[in-house]
């Protein structure tokens, strides 16, 4: 069996990242350390050239990551976590953007499968038949989606949604709306179930519809929000929440005085609003790290049921929630 970079690193008593630099950027490694790594590689028969190693081992030491939209600020932290873990494990990342086109994901997998050892699909919206074809082309791991035959990493919505609903109830709210995302989004479906579960204790919930997962989509939701008469809303993601808040304020509507708004993700911009956006934090970097582990630790011929790892979410209190405005008249509602 051909030695791996991890085995070379262990023999030389250095990190995988240091061992990788010794071959790819030797100028960044001290002479004594580099000599120790090269000696360990020679003893183990490690093949450093990536092309030669691929011919010998069948591995390229490259993994692909497909995201639905690189412009979505949710993904940089996920990718940063994935990149850090990949470097620790001696592999490189190859990134592809589906540009919010679910039907474009499978063609990307077909192209990448010839160049990588496996692919992480982030928030994939491809249909089941396409996912089955993709799984037949290369090893897969899923982020924010589950499949009984594939490893996956998900943000568990229940802790964060539960905290958000309890927080609004403690403020005195009795009716909350949900500004939803795309119909094909599995995360949206999971969130709706979590909201329904959290509201069983007496909170009335109102479905305000589905909107594009963008700032413009949040602004488009304003009419539905105002027409519903709710005093608080949970929003599919922070980008939409920020778009909604900005639109309402341009119309002279006070947030949180007239309406409480809670986002989802805790992107970097969430704390820059004045006041900052109350939101549910998703552990994005940890998701990226766990996705790489799920992909690389799952043996190609492993018949053991893959692990679906759930990472907890949590409420982050900032400045867009407040007690309901006095004298607000309840409006007829349509339950989620």
UniProtKB/TrEMBL annotation:
- For whether the record's keyword set contains Transferase, the answer is no
Q: What is one Pfam family matched by this protein?
A: Peripla_BP_3
**Does Transcription appear among the keywords?**
yes
Q: One GO molecular-function annotation for this sequence? A: DNA binding
Q: Which InterPro entries match?
A: HTH_LacI (IPR000843), LacI/GalR-like_sensor (IPR046335), Lambda_DNA-bd_dom_sf (IPR010982), Peripla_BP_I (IPR028082)
SUPFAM superfamilies given in the database record: lambda repressor-like DNA-binding domains (SSF47413), Periplasmic binding protein-like I (SSF53822)
The record, for Gene3D superfamilies, names: 3.40.50.2300, lambda repressor-like DNA-binding domains (1.10.260.40)
Q: Which residues form the HTH lacI-type domain?
A: 3-57
Keywords tagged on the record? DNA-binding, Transcription, Transcription regulation
UniProt-listed PANTHER family: LACI-RELATED TRANSCRIPTIONAL REPRESSOR (PTHR30146), TRANSCRIPTIONAL REGULATORY PROTEIN (PTHR30146:SF138)
- Its name, as the record gives it, is LacI family DNA-binding transcriptional regulator
Q: Which organism is it from?
A: Brachybacterium halotolerans
């Amino acid at each position: 069996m051909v030695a791996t970079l991890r085995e070379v690193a262990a023999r030389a008593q250095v990190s995988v990242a240091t061992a990788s630099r010794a071959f790819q950027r030797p100028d960044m490694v001290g002479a004594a350390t580099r000599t120790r790594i090269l000696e360990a590689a020679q003893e183990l028969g490690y093949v450093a050239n990536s092309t030669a190693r691929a011919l010998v081992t069948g591995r390229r030491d490259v993994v692909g990551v497909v995201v639905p939209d690189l412009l979505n600020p949710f993904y940089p932290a996920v990718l940063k976590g994935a990149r850090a873990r990949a470097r620790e494990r001696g592999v490189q990342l190859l990134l592809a953007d589906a540009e919010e086109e679910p039907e474009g994901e499978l063609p990307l997998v077909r192209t990448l499968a010839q160049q990588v050892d496996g692919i992480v699909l982030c928030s994939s919206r491809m249909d089941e038949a396409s996912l089955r074809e993709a799984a037949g082309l290369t090893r897969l791991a899923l982020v924010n989606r589950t499949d009984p035959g594939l490893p996956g990493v998900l943000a568990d919505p229940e802790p964060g949604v539960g905290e958000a609903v309890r927080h609004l109830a403690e403020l005195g709210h009795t009716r909350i709306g949900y500004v939803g995302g795309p119909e094909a989004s599995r995360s949206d479906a999971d969130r709706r179930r979590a909201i329904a579960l959290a509201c069983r204790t007496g909170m009335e919930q109102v479905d305000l519809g589905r909107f594009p997962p963008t700032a413009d989509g949040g602004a488009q939701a304003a009419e539905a929000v105002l027409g519903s008469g709710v005093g608080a809303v949970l929003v599919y993601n922070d980008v939409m929440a920020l778009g909604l808040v900005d639109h309402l304020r341009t119309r002279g509507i006070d947030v949180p005085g007239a309406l409480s708004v809670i986002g989802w993700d805790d992107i970097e911009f969430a704390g820059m609003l004045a006041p900052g956006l109350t939101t549910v934090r998703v552990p994005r970097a940890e998701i990226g790290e766990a996705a790489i582990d799920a992909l690389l630790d799952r043996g190609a011929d492993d018949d053991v049921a893959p692990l679906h790892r759930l990472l907890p979410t949590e409420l982050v209190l900032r400045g867009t929630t407040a007690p309901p405005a006095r004298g607000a008249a309840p409006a007829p509602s349509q339950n989620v």
